[in-house]
Amino acid sequence: MKKYMGTFVMALTMMGAPLLPSLSAHCSEVALEKGKTAFLHNCIACHADGGNEVNPEKTFSKADLQRNNINTPADIVRIMRNPGPGMLKFDAATLPDEDAHAIAVYILATFNQ
């Protein structure tokens, strides 16, 4: 089996190469949809349209995110896990890592303009 694996992978790569961009785009769409669903369930009450009901200086706009040194999904998840005053804490028991990351990716893709 092992000796045929390289040939199998090469054949898939050759056959699937034209399909990889569309597969990647589909996966991205699915991931964004998951993030959107989790965002609507957990975040929308305080962050409608990427705003911030509690602290208007900390919206999801590109300028505010940059000013607050938030540049990656990990930065957003870090804040979810240990927020400042006024924000609910979303620990891993409340919001699993996969969902937290999906929300962070959705925020950066949707509001970071």
General description of the model:
The chain is mainly α. It has helices at 2-16, 20-42, 44-47, 62-67, 73-81, 97-110. Helix 2 crosses helix 6 (97-110). It is globular, with a radius of gyration of 19 Å. The protein starts with a helix and ends with a helix. The model is unreliable at 1-14 (pLDDT under 50).
Q: What Rg, in angstroms, do the CA atoms define?
A: 19 Å
How much is the average pLDDT? 84
Number of strands: 0
Global structural class: mainly alpha
Total helical segments: 6
Tell me the helix content: 55-70%
Percent of residues in β-strands: under 5%
Weakly predicted, low-confidence segments = 1-14
What distance separates the N and C termini? 49 Å
Which sequence of SSEs, written as H and E, runs from N to C? HHHHHH
**Biggest beta-sheet profile:** none
Shape: globular
Features:
113 residues, mainly alpha, disordered N terminus
Short description:
The chain has 113 residues and is mainly α. The chain has six helices and no strands.
What order do the helices and strands come in, and which of them pair?
Layout: H1 2-16, H2 20-42, H3 44-47, H4 62-67, H5 73-81, H6 97-110
